[in-house]
Amino acid sequence: MTVTDDRPAAVLGSRLLRREDPALLTGEAKYTNDLHIPGALHLAVARSPYAHARIISVDLSAALAAPGVVAAYAGGDLTSLWAAPMPCAWPVTADMKNPAHYPIAVAKAAYVGDGVACVLATSEAAARDAIELIDVQYEPMAAVVDLEDALSDRVVIHDELGTNKSYTWDLKIEGHDGAIDEAFAAATYTVSERYVQQRLLPMAMEPRAVAAVPQPFGGDITLYSSTQVPHILKIMSAITLGIPEHQLRVTTPTVGGGFGSKLNVYAEELLCLALARKHKVPVRWNEERGENAVATTHGRGQIQHMELAADETGKFTAVRVRILGDMGAYLQLVTPGVPLLGAFLYAGVYDIPLYDFSCTSVFTTLTPTDAYRGAGRPEATYAIERAVDSLADKMGIDPMELRKRNFIQKEQFPYTAMTGLTYDSGDHLAAAEKAAGLADYEGVRARQKTHNVPGATTRIGIGQASYFEMCGLAPSRVLASLNYSAGGWEAATVRVLPTNKIQVVTGTAPHGQGHETSWSMIVADKMGVAPEDVDVLHSDTAIAPLGLDTYGSRSLPIGGVAIAMACDKVIDKAKKIAAHQLEANEDDLEFAGGAFSVKGSPDRSMPLAAIAFEAFTAHNLPDGLEPNLEAHVSYDPPNFSWPFGTHICTVEVDTETGRVHVLQYVAVDDCGNQVNPMIVDGQVHGGVIQGLAQALFEEAVYDTEGNLKNASLAEYLVPAASDVPSLTLGHTITPSPTNQLGVKGIGEAGTIGAAPAVINAIVDALSGLGVTDMVMPASPNNVWKAIQAATRNTPSNGASK
Amino acid sequence: MIPAAFDYVRAGSAAEAISLIGQHGEDAKFLAGGHSLLPLMKLRLASPSVLVDIGRVSDLSYIRDGGDHIAIGALTRHMDVETSTVLKEHAPLLAHAAGHVGDPQVRHRGTMGGTIAHADPASDLPATTLALGATYVAQGPNGTREIAAADFYQGFLESALAPDEMLTEIRVPKMQGAGWSFQKFNRRAQDWAIVGVAAWRRNGSSGVALVNMGSTPILATSVSGALADGASVSEAAELAVAEAEPQADLNASIEYRTHLAKVLVRRALEEATK
Amino acid sequence: MKISVTVNGTVHESDVEPRTLLVHYVRETLGLTGTNIGCDTSSCGACSLHLDGEAVKSCTVLAVQADGAEITTIEGLAVDGVLHPMQEAFRQNHGLQCGYCTPGMVMAATSLLKENPHPTEAEVRIGLEGNLCRCTGYHNIVKSVLACAAGE
């Protein structure tokens, strides 16, 4: 019987090609809207054209008379279908205001895109034709678009709440209150700045799609959805609709990207489920891109007041942060918690003794916000990294030097921050120096002296961002302290089949990350088999009933580690069988290369394949040992994981047109040990360009009436290959000491580093002209405007910098 | 995403197309490559009751040397204009500008006549042919007529074409070795220009036209006039917006767009002067 | 209206509504769901396929316009289970993640190399200006196309 000696010397850490790719490359992969579902009715949703309006009446008669239409409903027609309002799983404070939110609005539309009626028809075309025939009478009311205006309660959106303020959440640390004021009073240097994290549209390339398929007589129902969170969706849908949880199966076919926007429980998922149950036929819905822009959650949306104090040497002494968060019209699944995911990170990678954070969040008459790649952590990193550059500018020293003076030092890890969280491991200096080398930091500084001369029409700038990412969400007890309604564990089952093929069942829910490949590598390494002999099952609650899904760079440090732990359990059991068969003491056995052997007597060995078959036949197992080789683990991590790194961006700004040209982008990321460096690089590439897109291209633009002015990919500027640079990547490897794989997660790192690095580079390029800050996106118009304002205010000599 | 329903008829010749559009009246539209019309129909911003497909009138796809000009059939695709050796020799500005329309997939389908007839001030080729002093040929029930590009653009998406007229040919004067430049300023390569400039210079004469600087493509006659009077490139560029009516949009304020037009006209003239 | 199209080498005679977009025709009538829909403004390129040998956005072509044409979709690229060199290059260079833009990206890239067999990196980037990807940051897509052009 062949074992596994022909496998690659080291699977873990190799650039193994992805097993997911052939199906994706040939069009064989099925996304939700590719499914052929005979007899399905198509759902279309009529959406409010007003940001804020009372619904006076809904006339469905013309729609009902249209060809192919089976049913049409206004919000009031559906209320009996909901056992509870749509869920928000994160009541961040005991007194948080949370308006009741239903899949179809009943009395009031609270944002453009809010569903006000829906149609079921025999084809998608018929359904879409029919919603144009629905006559809704509205009483338009004033929109609330601006966050500070929202806070004033000039117009209260949800009458029953009496205010637009949802909550204030403070991270107050005992003894810091007075000390913070003293530190700012005593500081030699302080910065106090206001940054705006513009609203972003996640724009996963696959719009959302849903299909609910009932078994008309048994009560069972299957929900197919393009979601990142099949498990959470199942629980929440069961609660919201009053479906017995065991009768609901959620399965996700191939999912075309999520970036946080598919980490939710959406109206259309609930509508398809409820109407499929009501009509006893399958109901499906495909989102159009224009709908995606208004009816899928948005990201970011914060105003940040950031203060940083330092002594005469530039040593940081205190941070004070005030956030105003834009919730949009309603609280979706984790809307209120997003700013809190950044709450601990406004001190960045620096050793700062005093800390004060407070976040107030308000409702607006805009699409709800929720998680978007990085969720709270890019915002925090942006604020501290911009503030550090501003402070360096005030001191007149190089920002790289200022960072080096303040980094938490390698020897300080594990480092317990003043917030109470413990950072597992890190070496910021090494990452920064590696990035500086790749970026030729000193060389660029030298070029600036000759290039950025008075009268030059282009100026060069270099900007840095060093980050810590709190990821691997999350230790359940920490989530409890933040009032999150669920845990942060992950589940894994590892099963050795009789012929020594291995089945892994994971609770993670990949949507582009290549989990099948990476998880097979972990198992191959553990079990001494080839990765292709490992099957990875996921994203179907009938097959993988336990799990908490994929978001927050959690899948590897929790889900992957759970798999490794389940392998250990399987090996432990196999060892008992091997000891029994080899008539050896368990302690005398070692497992390597897929076989157990007696230490010192390599000829007395038994391959896993033989043990698997023994476990299956159960003819000769040790007394009391159950048949089969299978183990389950639910793993609750002891800590977050803390990836880190330094990104450096070099830009050339055309001061006549305001266009920013990225000359070079260097990303040095440390995510601990790497399972598959090819996949790690891909995650960084994508993350960086998404962050760079926030810095240079993207913004949800609203008019004062609350209309989204760029609700399409023609106007919302997701950049193409032609519009972005190639990237230079480097890595340092500092294993996490908190898990056996030494891994940390990499999904969000790129996005976290990119926006501040790019903006710091632009401000650096233009600082000789008197520019001290730059709004995002740094569009040509905005850059030009900043240059105009600076040169008007500060007659500058344009001296070289 | 799904257009409203319509009737579809196919024309085998220009004459048949004109007859069909006459029969179906005002709600009928010509369909050539469809890359201006179908996007509007998918968003239901346009809902014609009848489409007259002229895409198979293959004798309107050509690029011919007409002596002092190059004649381009209305159904010639952007990709064919972009890669034409005849145009590269005699009207390189046009060939180059055609390579900047939309993206390659759009250029494989979109037609020269379609983009001219659509008369979008933000499109590249209306302004480019305007700068080059092109003449457009229109065919109607009573025969053909020539319309100077300078007389063609009458308002936002409005041209001098009568409802029952069809654009059949674009005649571009040979550039005779003139220096030229096409400046397209946008945030993403696939987008319409925030501001675009098509310019050529030869001896004392010049032509400069602006993309997306008003409700029609704009001929910057003041710039050419100043150059003819001996102004420097920088001086002439200051007059870039004399004929323009810039509007604000998501990508540019009026102030910025005005400034950008001056910068790009200057750069275009500098390049055309080399 | 009756149309006849040759898709991946097979002739199909179909009766379609005039308003049927080519992308809906190949996906729903022919069941070739590899061609994806990512937007409604002809911006994203996810629906790119080859019409008479050239990449087009099939969301901006009516099925009736394709009457008589030869169409190749992503399903028609691999032959006898062997990936097309462009597909193989994407696989070797990790040029895809979620895969949703991938069929359109591959069809655009093969069309690009047909017109410009040895492009520079800048030419690849501008040649793919009409295709959006949210996962890869394009770095490895560009690398894939260059590798395919180099015959790697």
Care to describe what's here?
The complex is a heterotrimer of chains A (about 800), B (about 270) and C (about 150). Chain A is an alpha+beta fold. In chain A, about 30% of the residues lie in helices and about 25% in strands. In chain A, helix 10 runs parallel beside helix 19, helix 15 runs parallel beside helix 16 and helix 18 packs across helix 19. The radius of gyration of chain A is 28 Å and the shape is globular. With about 270 residues, chain B is α+β, with helices and mostly antiparallel strands. In chain B, the strands form four sheets. Chain B has a five-stranded antiparallel sheet with strand order 4-5-10-6-7. In chain B, strands 11-12-13-14 form a four-stranded antiparallel sheet, sandwiched between helices. A three-stranded parallel sheet of chain B has the order 1-3-2, with helices on one face. Chain B starts with 6 loop residues before the first strand and ends with a helix. Chain C is an alpha+beta fold and about 150 residues long. Chain C contains five helices and five strands, in the order E-E-H-E-E-E-H-H-H-H. Chain C has a five-stranded mixed sheet with strand order 2-1-5-3-4, with helices on one face. The interface between A and C is large, with 57 and 56 residues.
Spatial strand arrangement across the major sheet of chain C: 2-1-5-3-4
Runs of chain C in which pLDDT lies below 50 for 5 or more consecutive residues are none
Rg over CA atoms of chain C: 15 Å
**Oligomeric assembly:** heterotrimer
- State the helical fraction of chain C: 25-40%
Provide mean pLDDT of chain A, rounded: 96
Principal-axes geometry of chain A comes out as: globular
Topology:
The complex is a heterotrimer of chains A (801), B (274) and C (152).
Chain A: H1 21-26, E1 41-47, E2 53-59, H2 61-65, E3 69-74, E4 108-109, E5 115-121, H3 124-131, E6 135-140, H4 147-152, E7 165-171, H5 176-186, E8 189-197, E9 209-214, E10 221-225, H6 230-241, E11 248-251, H7 267-279, E12 283-286, H8 289-295, E13 302-310, E14 316-328, H9 338-341, E15 354-363, H10 377-395, H11 399-406, E16 415-416, E17 422-423, H12 428-439, H13 441-451, E18 458-468, H14 476-481, E19 490-496, E20 502-506, H15 515-527, E21 534-537, H16 555-582, E22 589-592, E23 595-598, E24 601-607, H17 608-617, E25 629-635, E26 644-654, E27 660-670, H18 677-696, E28 728-731, H19 749-766, H20 780-793
Parallel strand pairs in A: 1-12, 10-11, 14-15, 20-21, 27-28
Antiparallel strand pairs in A: 1-5, 2-4, 2-6, 3-5, 7-15, 8-13, 9-10, 9-12, 13-14, 16-17, 18-26, 19-20, 19-25, 22-23, 23-24, 26-27
Chain B: E1 7-10, H1 14-24, E2 28-31, H2 37-42, E3 50-53, E4 63-65, E5 69-73, H3 78-83, H4 85-90, H5 92-98, H6 104-109, H7 112-118, H8 124-131, E6 135-140, E7 143-148, H9 149-152, E8 153-155, E9 158-159, E10 166-173, E11 179-185, E12 195-202, E13 205-211, E14 218-219, H10 221-228, H11 233-237, H12 254-273
Parallel strand pairs in B: 1-3, 2-3
Antiparallel strand pairs in B: 4-5, 5-10, 6-7, 6-10, 8-9, 11-12, 12-13, 13-14
Helix pairs in contact in B: 5-8
Chain C: E1 2-7, E2 10-15, H1 22-29, E3 48-51, E4 54-57, E5 70-72, H2 85-92, H3 102-115, H4 121-127, H5 139-149
Parallel strand pairs in C: 1-5
Antiparallel strand pairs in C: 1-2, 3-4, 3-5
Helix pairs in contact in C: 2-5
